[in-house]
Amino acid sequence: MPDCQPGLNAAVWRKSSYSNPDGGQCVEVADGIQGQVPVRDSKRPTYTPLTPSIHAWQALVRAIRLGRLEP
């Protein structure tokens, strides 16, 4: 099967600092992917990750920090 997202096979994933420490609700992101911020569920690492653009990711983080999104 061809790699539909080049570079993600070698991506180094890190768990979000906001992830639940007891193993639930864990989000991981990969750094260093050109123009994207890949995001995945750490409990399902083989699933295809979401790959928002850097600008979309920054807008999401900004909205969260400003309290514009409900939990």
TrEMBL record:
Which Pfam families does the annotation name?
Answer: DUF397
| Annotated InterPro entries | DUF397 (IPR007278)
What region holds the DUF397 domain? Answer: 11-65
Name of this chain's protein: DUF397 domain-containing protein
What organism does this protein naturally occur in?
A: Streptomyces orinoci
